Every structure is written in C-alpha cells, then in structure tokens.
C-alpha cells in the first residue's frame, strides 16, 4: 500500500481499519540465496539493496530481537559527511546522497532533516585542522563552510561566548548534514525490503555458522532452526566479534558502551546540530522537541548496554559549558548502545577469510549516518564479490598492511577513536 | 486581590494554616499554605484546568499528587530562572511563586492549537511517516517547522542559568530509598543496629503514604507515627536524613546517583547555596522502598480536568486539607479505590456513585458506600465524561448496559498499583509478573539491593512495615553490625483487593498516555501495522516517552497490546526502565563545571609576571600561556609577534616554557629503559648532556618528541610537548610496569615542580653570565650545545640546559616552581641592558616554523618518523616501542605525505594552515590532492609568509611549483616547495 | 563502578582509565608479546642487528596488536589509576554485568 496524504485521508474515513503491517513478520524458510544477520538499519538496508540493485530477493534478514532494537534505535540520529580522509569522505558522501533521495526511494518519510551540522573550534590548531578537513570535503565535492566566531554567535546566540573556559573561535559547517528519524529509517527499509520479497525474521538469534567440507559458509544455526545459504552477511555492529567468533575469526574490534540522552520536550530552541570542540558533547533537537545529546564512550569494554555516572556528568558538563541555558532543562532518559570500536575508528566492509562470509562491522559511534551507503556497498559486495569503490578502503587487512584510516590519529587503542 | 481558597478544608491535613503563601498562576494571584504543593494550592483555589496536551491540545487538569504527573505541567518561575515542564504536583509552594501554563495560545481556556483535535482522525500514531514526503525540500522549509512549533511543551528561556550547582560524594552501609512506611522501618532497624544509613526521600516531607492515610501504626495515627519515627532517626548518630532528594539511578559497584533540591522551595537560593546538588552515593547495601503508583483506568474521556487518581484524591484531602471535588463519582477496580469515597465523603463531598467493573466485592465496602447515599454500579463502567474545560458530568453504564448521566465535578479512578521498581532494572535485571497484584514486581536485583513494601508489590501497610524492618535489619547484619534493631512497627494487614482491569480495543477518545495523547485506537493501529513488540509500540506511538516516563501509561498500553495479540502480559513484557527515574536538571549533573570553571585552569609560576608585562594569554590544554606581549603603539598582534621574533633573532628573549612536560626517570636501568621507549639511543648519552628523541606508539606512528638530559648515570629528565605530557607519562608508566616490570626504573611527573624559561638569542649567554655570575660557567666550552648542568644559585637548585627550539644560541633554565616568579623577574632585570624581551607562544611558533621543527600540527598521530624527516634517528641497533609495526608497507610507502617547506612565489603572498596542495592547473579534486599546509606563519627573518606542509613524496619535489588552495577562504597561492628549514640551515647560530 | 586498587582501596571509576585487553599488551614488541617472560624484550633487541630493516613478521605482530577476543563475559583488562597512585592494574571483570572478580597489580600479574 503506497503511503501518501491521500491514502492517509482515505484510511481516516474508514477509521484506519485498512492499514496492513508495514512489513511481513516472516517465519524462516529452510534455505535462502543469502542471509543477512542483523535486523538493524544496516542489515535491512543491505537486504533492500540486494533486492533493488542486484535482483537478489531470496534473502532473509535474521534479527535476534525486534528490528531496530540495537544501535539503529539507540543513536542520536545525526547524518553528515564531514570527513577528512579520502577513504571515508567518498563513502559518507555516497551515504548523504542516498539520504537525500531516501524518502522518494522508500515511499516512507524518515524525516531526513538537512538542518546543518556545525563543529565548533576553540584554538588556532583546531581551526587549522577544521580548515584542512573542510578543504578535503570540498575537494571531494562535499559542502563545507568556515564560520567566524561572530557568525557562530549570530546563528546560535545562546551558546556561551562571553564566559567560556575555551572560547568559541569559529566553526566548520556542513549545511547538508542534519538528522533523520532513526526508527523510521529502520521501518522504511524493512517495509521496502519486505515489499520486494525479503523475509524479515524477528526473534531469530544466530547461534552458529555452518561450513561445508571445503570450509565455505553453508548457512547458519539459529534459535528458530537451521537456515541454509551460500552467502551470509553479518551486520551486527556491537556484537560483531561474537558472531565472527562463530566462524573462528578474531576482529580488530572492541565493544564499548556509548550513552545517549534526551531531555524533556521543549519548544524549538536549537535548529541545527552542534558539536563542542573543547569537550565531548554534541546536541540537536528532535521534531518532538527533546534535546538529543551525547558525548564520549564510557571507555571500558562492555556488552551491558548501559554506562556509569562519570560519563553522564562529563557529557552534561560539556553541555553546560557550551549552552548555559541547559541548566534548567531536564534529562528525561538516558540509554546505552554497544559500539563496535575498531582499532582505527573506521569501519570494515569486506569479505572474510571464510568463503561466502561477509562482514559489515566496526562502525564505532558513526554507524547511523552510514546506514544507506553501508547497505548499498555491502549488498554489492555480497552480490558481486567486488567492493563498491567508495568502500574499497574498508578492508580487514588494512591493519596488517598499515593502511589504517585514522581520522583522529589515535592509533591502535579502540576507546580513543 | 487574591481569591479565597474555595476548596480548602477548615481542618485536616499537614499544611500550616498560620503560614499563608502568595503565588501566581497565569498572572492571577492566589494563596496557599506552607506544606502545599503548587497542585494542592491550585486545587484549594478551585483551579482545575492547568495545561494542554502535547498533540491535540486537549484541556488537562491535575491527575496525581506526585512526580508521576502527566498533565499538570507548568513553566515555573520567570526570566532566566524559568523551568519548563515543571510538575505542579512535585513543586513545593513558596511565597512569590509564579507559574504559567504551557502549550497554549492565546490562552489556556481558549487555545487555537485545539484545532488539532478536529484533525485527530488524520493525526493518528505515525501519520508523519506516511506523508510530508512531497515536494522535495518542503520538509525542512514547511512541514518540519510547523510540526516543531506545534510539538514541545514548555519553552526554555534560552538564557544562562543564573543559579549554581554542586556535586558531592557520600558513603554509607545502607542507602534507603524512600521514606514511606517500609523505608522508615528499614532506616530505623538499620540505624538502631548501628549502621551508617542514608535515607533519601524525593518529597519535602518524610512519611510517604503515611502522610496521606488514616490508618494507625503502633496505635498512633499514621502521620504522627511517621513524625515520631523521623524524630528518632534524627537522634541516631549514623543516620543521615535527606529530604527533597531523589535517587535517580543505580550504577555499578553499589553507586547511586541522587539529586537534592537544596533551594527549589525558595524564590531564589540563599547566597552561597546551590540550587541543586548531585550526590554520588557509594552504599554497601541498599533498600528500595520507593512505593507504588496507582494505575489509571482507560475509558472514553478519561483525560478531562476533574478526572483524578483515587489515591491522589486521598492525598489532597488527608495531607493537604483540600477537597478536590464536591460531587464525586468513584470508578475503581480495586477495594482500595473505595477508600477514596469514604475519605472524600467524610470531608463533605457528596458521593454520587461508585462504579466497580468487578462483578462482586466485599459486602462491607458496599454497605458503607450505600450509607453515604452513593449509587453502586457493580460490573459497571464509565461510558463518557462531559464538560468543555472541566468535568461537569459522567455517563455511567450499569452492568446491564443502561446508561445514565450523573452531574459530578470529580471522578476518581483506581486501576491497581504499579510498584516503583525502576531502580531494580537499571543494571539489566528484568521485572517479573505478579498475578496476585496484576503488575510487574522486581525480578532480579542489583548486587546488595533488597526491596520492601509497595515497591515489592506488598500493598498492605502492616506487611510493608514488617518487610522494611526486616530489610533494614538484614542489611545491618550483612555489614557486620549486630546492634538491636528493635521491633517491627505494627499496623493492620488490610488487603488492597486488586483485580486486573485492562483497557480493551474499541473505546473512543480513551487515553492510554495522557501527555502524548496516545489513545486506545493508536495502540490498535500499531498492532494492525505490525509494531507489536512493546519497544516498537513505544517508538511508533510515543507511548511512555513523555515527561512522566510512562509511569502511568506503560502497563495499560502493554496490556492492551497483549490483549490484541491474545497473549499474556508477561509474555509481551515491558519496556526497559532507564535512568533517570525522574527527570534531572542538566545543571545539577554538570555541577560547578561550567563557564570558566568547566575545566581547571593551570597557571605557571610566571603567570603574574606575564600579566604585569601585558601578556595576552591563550589556552594550551588546561594551561594558560602568554600568547604575546603587546607594546604600546603596535598596530596588531602580527606587529607584536614580529617584534618578539626579531628580539630573539637579534638580541635575546625569554619565554616561559614551564608547561612542557617533565618526567624524572631514575634507577640503574634508566638508560636502558629510555633506549626502549625512544627510537634513538640514550644509554650511551654522557652525564651532563641532553639529546633530542622521538617516541613512537606501539603501532609505529610518532607519539611525541622532546629532549632527555642525563643528570647522573641513573637519572634522566625527559621533556615532552605540553599537549602530550599526561599521555607520555601514562605511556612510560605502562612501559615500566606492564611491558618491562623487571626494569629497575622509577618515574615521576615533575612538570609542576619546576618553572622553566627559555633564554634565546645571540645575547643569551651574556644574559646568563650577568644573571648567574660565578654560580655557573656558561661558556661554550663548559656548556656546549646540548649540554646540561645542575648547580646551586643563591641557595636555589638550578637545572640549566643548552637547548634551542628557536635555532638561536639558547638555554632553558629551570628552578623549583616556588622560585619561578623570582627567576622571571631576575632574567628581565639582568637582561635589561641587553634589550631582553619576553616572548609568547605565538613567537615561539614562528621561530620553530622558521627552523622547520615539528610540533602538534605535524605530530598528528598519523605521521611516521620518516614523514617528519626524523627517520634517520631510528636506531637499527636496538629494539624500541613501535619499531616492528613501523615497518608495515603502509608506513614505509614512498607515496606518503612528507614534511617540506613552502614559500609563496609572490613575496607578498599569504599562506594559511589547512590549505591543500595542488599542481598548477590541476582540478580541485581528491584525486589531485597532494597534501596540505600544517603550519603557516609570517617570517620576520625572511620578510614573507612561509609554511610547513606534508606533501606526497615531499622531499623529491623540492623546487617544484604548486598551489596552496584554501577553498573555504577562497585563496589559491602559487608556492615553491623548499626544505623545511628556512633560517640558518647549517645550525651556525646554535653552536655560537 | 568502583575498583579496589591494591594500594588505594575502593575508588570511583572516574579515577581510572582503561587501556585494553591485558593479553595484547606489548604484542607489537618482538620478545615482549603475550607469553614472553620478563627480560625477553632485551634479548630480542639484540637479535635485531644493523640493517634488519622492516620486520618480516611485522604483519604477525600487527595481528597481535590489532585483533581482539572481545568476549561477552569474563575479561582481563588493563586499567591505569591515573588520578591515584598511577599503578597499572589488571582487572578481571564481566563485560556483561561489570562485576569485578579480581584486581591485581599489572607488574605482578603473569603477562
């Protein structure tokens, strides 16, 4: 059923009794051409693009809980392509272009809102780094502009300009960046994939990876039985190491908890995404009115989907330092997601040493914005065996070769990325 | 002129009628009493309409008497102190309080936004996902702004919060959360046994439901017993009573977060006092005694002002002495709910009807209700409510289906109780289902926690007291305290008489989530469209996501979904509760860390002197460093910096370099240890000499650079960059303790212990001679380039190094920090005849760029020693951290970006950091990107702009012409690639 | 979270910083990788004679530096008591519950 104002109005007249499930809640078949493990944004997007771009519709997405229950539903909904390094910027710009056409493509309003992303800087060295990055973006064809401190003040007068420990010296803005409604992205891809024949199987936990005598992938064992498939794509960021271990693989990944926060809903205050440069803090306002914000990971490896108080305080300190009006705004909810922190801060989209097993992992805390391109590139890799050029740098062996993609320059320590 | 308190009772309640308090709501003046909440004071004045709902802007009143309130949200206070979305039921009344209703225009009684109610058939759950997709670009420009304006509730002032906040730590044997019957009993038992107890209560009064009930405890009225218990607790030495303190989160290791509302009951905090205080409480054991919340019933029109929870109505009558309505209908699915009829009737209300959907119940209740003249509708329901802005009547349906309209101004409802168990689930445990009370009760518990009373699902007062007492006694015993816990308090074990009464699909305008306007129909739609997991239901309909955090709505919504699915509630489950259990001000969580106190400010010993000399300071991490020293008449900072650089190149300058990291490395293995952490060798360095060294990370990239000087065979002092001081210290301790624990070496950070000045320029030696006189021989023979000396001067230990960052004849002189100020003054005095000038970090930067020395912009964490022209330092005779991985193909690729210098072809051309390098005529694309400018400066020595850059195959391109392109600033400067050392490449000046 | 530092006693999480898996410590150093005994580093240093150039086994060492077991369950990690006694600690902890089973000085724990 197409979604439109007209179909909404027509259904309203019938008491909305005519709506059908947005996607089929499928029971697993015994075999598929390909299985995607993980019913988050990346897994569902992968299945969608497998069907849409490669005509591969005999596909199942296996989700251990309900779709979008992992990081797809736990992020702070920011989309942007303001990356420095060539290995990243082309990929995230591909993602941004897919975001820009997403709603027409999916016939679903994911509330992609290009309200801008502004990275503040607070020192000459940070300005030089921002200029370097902005120029790298422009060379890649990505919009970027440098704002003076006065221009930042005109745009966001309620930031702390006059009593700051680290005064705002300016900012780097990407106007095409912004936010998207994270759950809607999941549902939009699920609905579109389902319409193209993909089976979305919830409450189906993968417990083992089947291999044929030659060592190639033959399918998966799940909590709902054995499912055979010659190609298995793993998109379970946060838990990649655990699934990879089922195939005997160790990954350059450590799992860490990242907390996020939302305030009580207030009338519009902040019309863009802002990141503080003198501490770990970023903030935007949702369409509902809640201020959505976060900061650094807790810093220790964890699978607990929750964090501790020092990080809560650290994030709020950044918030108050940046926006002193936040003092009387209340935190309504906090939550934690498990991040695949890779050893260079960049993701992995690659075939593995196990034939037929493909890996989409290592998204650190940047996976949401990558959702469309991740699915697009992973689908191509699974369908054709060759990587999409924009994702060609995301190889597993880059660590051994010394071809790391380290935006922050922090080296082989996962929690510093 | 203030209104009279039309609904205040002459007696009853715990408010102080001798202490009237004036307040304003929507500009109108009212009066309440000390001990009121804003909600009780509004009800006392007959105010029923207090807010508008989120989506349909429906009129809303006061539903509860506590922090679970979904509707009565107001903007509290004025100006910069405005607090949007304050729950009137949790705001303690104070004299002069001012509050305004929210989410309405132009007025609360006439709200244009209520038109949304007419559009309700379109604005169902998730409507926006299906529409607003066309035309492209309209979302950001038209639809989204409209949605955003309509959404949100209160308005932030946007002004800096004028109040202050602070954080504190507390430690105890037992943390008791909640000062109701179970909590008081637990605190008494543990406190008497000798435990250190902290008792936290969110309310401003201690006692919980005891303040609202008319039962007896130990033969006294409940409230009187509570007062006695509190008085006894106050006498126990180990017990700390913390009212107005909400425990909002359970964290690992027995740590809890709590927020104390220190001054929220005052118009303005007292001088020197914070508004709120964040407590981090480390408790060996905890008892959760947070009570339970009454559950609403879901029926058509259940959101109208005048519909209230039954327990809340008893709170208003019994605790606040307010009669919330005069003609009352009681809708209850519990025996407990009937008590509202009795309590309200006793204070003068007329009970029109008691409607109980259950077919049968205790005859005693019915008999008592009949005596009140109330109609009894067993098996009945409420089919609708009436009244535009407040309840004027209800349509009730008897068991047989016959409907009748009753004129009432208050409808109270009771659907059972939900235990306040959120703190039990913060560490990951899931609640368990209790058929007995038809609600979720605590399942697993955090380590060290026990639960007592209603929070555990124990709804009789007597049992709650016993459980609390036992929990307190056991906690004390677990902490090894054997004192006498005394007897458990006694009260009747009256059962609450619960039976499940869940909403069913079909009811119109029956609200499950009041604040977010989630109706029965919305839940049914979510089910129809496949959003059937309770988490998907929440996300699709926003059920439970309002400021009441789903305290009233969640279970009804989940039960409704369970019914639609035909599955039992526990199988459908419930959503995970997350901290905070009550919304907490961001200011409280940030504490004092705001404004200039966001991070500590580190000042060098020379700070005051620099300030006297007119320094402009700049942040260098947490340090403040002099950036430059402007002289009168200088046009701009560039003129100042140019003068300072010239002073160093032509005469002598001094610069405070105390912020550089300094690490003492001592022990027999000190030399061998440094061999392992630097790429170059140090064990062979003679005593009295210093050496420049580079450290790598384990992955082979450069970590930091600096010098290490050998002061004795077993004593080195290592210097680091300012930015990396802590990281290098951490790295070295890691190497010493983890990698080579057998090495006999000790490390100490001495950065703050020594004040250090650079003395640089052709006249530097003459300055030191004048300063030190006979205390030290600073001749080239005695102290050659890279020499290091320790000696005493005027009784003060001095470390003198002949090091140069500027490329001039230069020294660094260090004294204990206490003498730093004196050293700076002495240097200026001794050098006056030589024209000594203090110079700041900016001139320091120019001097080092002229010499091609790398700094933070080049040591970016992605550069190798080879990239920076330092590859020749890497020893092949020894192993060191990073050596193996530095040999990976990607790190030795000849195509890497490597350090070079740049000169504009046009001598007037200006360079800027961050510009990228392109070949002449090359299109501005990533493929043509050859590198970037790392550091740029105007060189006074060359009279033109120069820069350092990282350039693909850089050293091979010396002499090539390229363009430095800054697309952000719109500049495109032709440049020549040159070696990175611009001044004195032979190093003649160094060795002067 | 609270960590019982052998020197300082039970201290709040905010005093500590986490480095990573204890087993990966020194994996990039010839002779100092997991399983190598104390002093092995110095001997290996002697092996790397002049002209050794890039290590033939740089790839294997990189694997040891970058790859992780990353278990959901019991894990031994290195923590630094940065705002305390500056000791490096080996903390055995459950990554699912954050329960801490053991805290030892890293210099005393067998590497």
From TrEMBL, chain A:
SUPFAM superfamilies: FAD-linked reductases, C-terminal domain (SSF54373), FAD/NAD(P)-binding domain (SSF51905). Its cofactor is FMN; FAD. It comes from the Bacteria. InterPro entries: FAD-dep_OxRdtase, FAD/NAD-bd_sf, Rhodanese-like_dom, SoxB. Residues 35-78 form the Rhodanese domain. Keywords: Cytoplasm, FAD, Flavoprotein, FMN, Nucleotide-binding, Oxidoreductase. It is found in: Cytoplasm. It catalyses: sarcosine + O2 + H2O = formaldehyde + glycine + H2O2; sarcosine + (6S)-5,6,7,8-tetrahydrofolate + O2 = (6R)-5,10-methylene-5,6,7,8-tetrahydrofolate + glycine + H2O2. Its EC number is 1.5.3.24. Belongs to the SoxB family. This is Sarcosine oxidase subunit beta. It comes from Methylobacterium crusticola.
TrEMBL record, chain B:
It comes from Methylobacterium crusticola. The keyword Oxidoreductase applies. It comes from the Bacteria. Residues 508-591 form the SoxA A3 domain. NCBIfam families: soxA. Pfam families: Fer2_4, GCV_T, GCV_T_C, Pyr_redox_2, SO_alpha_A3. Residues 608-878 form the GCVT N-terminal domain. This is Sarcosine oxidase subunit alpha. Residues 898-984 form the Aminomethyltransferase C-terminal domain. InterPro entries: 2Fe-2S-bd_N, FAD/NAD-bd_sf, FAD/NAD-binding_dom, GcvT/YgfZ/DmdA, GcvT/YgfZ_C, GcvT_C, GCVT_N, Sarcosine_oxidase_asu. Residues 173-428 form the FAD/NAD(P)-binding domain. Keywords: Oxidoreductase. Belongs to the GcvT family. Coiled coil: none annotated.
Automatic annotation (TrEMBL), chain C:
InterPro entries: SoxD, SoxD_sf. Residues 27-57 are annotated as: Disordered. Residues 27-52 have a biased composition (Gly residues). This is Sarcosine oxidase subunit delta. It comes from Methylobacterium crusticola.
